[in-house]
Amino acid sequence: MSTADPQTDHDPTAPPDFDRLTALLPRYELAGPRYTSYPTAPVWSDDFGPSDFAAALARAQAPADAGFAMYIHIPFCRELCHYCACNRVITKSEVLPERYLEAIGREIEAIAGHLPTDMRLGELHLGGGTPTHLDPKQIETLMGFVDASFERATDAEFSIEVDPRVTTEDHIDTLHARGFRRISLGVQDFDPKVQQAVHRIQPPEQVAALTDYARKRDFESVNFDLIYGLPHQTVESFDATLDHVFDFEPDRVALYSYAHVTWIAKQQRGFERMDLPSGDEKLRIMLHAMRRFIDKGYVHIGMDHFAKREDSLAVAAARGELHRNFMGYMTRPPGDLVALGPSAISKVGGCYAQSLRGFDEWETAVLDHGLATFRGHTLSADDERRAWVIEEIMCGAAVDAGEYRARFGSEFKRDFASELEDTTEFVEDELLRVGEDGSLTATPTGSMLLRNLAMCFDAYLPGQNAEAGPKFSKTI
Fold this sequence. Notes:
Elements: H1 18-24, H2 50-58, E1 68-74, E2 76-77, E3 89-90, H3 95-114, E4 121-128, H4 136-149, E5 152-162, H5 169-177, E6 180-188, H6 192-198, H7 204-216, E7 221-228, H8 235-248, E8 252-257, H9 279-295, E9 298-301, E10 305-308, H10 312-319, E11 323-325, E12 328-330, E13 337-340, E14 345-348, E15 351-355, H11 359-369, E16 373-378, H12 381-396, E17 398-399, H13 401-408, H14 412-415, H15 417-422, H16 424-428, E18 432-434, E19 440-442, H17 450-455, H18 461-466
Parallel strand pairs: 1-4, 1-13, 2-3, 4-5, 5-6, 6-7, 7-8
Antiparallel strand pairs: 8-10, 9-10, 11-12, 14-15, 15-16, 17-19, 18-19
Helix pairs in contact: 3-4, 3-11, 4-5, 8-9
């Protein structure tokens, strides 16, 4: 194992050596977690219930100048996108959203009753499903519940995921009036053949019109979600999608690998009868897209995210101030995350807590008891240490042994001796440098394989891999 000191001028946003990455990627294409949490959800226990969550909420903390984070899951979609493995309810019913609003209002009230009274809301994200399945009046009702229960922190950031097919200018006006300034558009791919295969038809003009209107209404950041590895995609077809993307100039882009998880999303099995890209073609699509984003001046952020160099996410990454939770990468100091709605996952008071997934069972539990927790996990001291190490890897592509010592009062090199041995392949492939004290620094090329590196520090993963049945998507 190399013991050369990591470079002090390490820049996690520097571009990789694409030729070397092309040669190495096939060996690192494994199934593994995305590490929006550690430990990951398969470890959590069904013995963790509403009373445990209530106790965790009472212990909640948040930086005074930033406030706590909140995620609200709105599960409804009008149609099923065949690639999607999210928790969603496909419906055109006008009754279900009204039932949802009654229950979410009750859940917000219950959460507020358990949190310390001095907690302020610093960050809110609406996800789904399709949050804009709710009409503007219903969004007003939802935000009325939020504002009635929580005081906003100074400079609170509100963001939302939207489907361009169902989002109107009235939606944008309502969101703007309620303080939303960040918006993420589900784009995926602009190729008509791919859109037909995944059952999501949205012409570029529709996305362009919504993007333009959001900017006219002073939304500070527009993100596009793209997916590579979908049926019928080729390097050439995805290149045409990227041409449209660059015409629209989103501030941020999430370039996700299609996760073929048929044990979760049964409708994906139909893709196996279509023209899914081969493993090699999928890698070529990914690498080509990465090259184009970097050539256009975007900075690679963490795993699969890109941002314009002047964007706050890119600035935070360059300064080593990037953070990560279930809502993705963020720039604000990490506090507790409280999540509401079916399947929502909170990280609060040293615990993870997840609500019931099914709409009906979640609704019944909330209306009866206020909370719908069905599983969770209380972090041990070892979990806390490993969670910190993994977040450092995922957000900064480095681990500082001195900072670990200051935080935990022990030596990183001693505590993780066997894990450091597991990184030998990364060192030999010039993806990682290891200092005398065990400090880790991923090279620019290694920064493209952070999930793989983080897996070396996951104490639960060997046991999970030994169990029957798949649990995670591919890392590439």
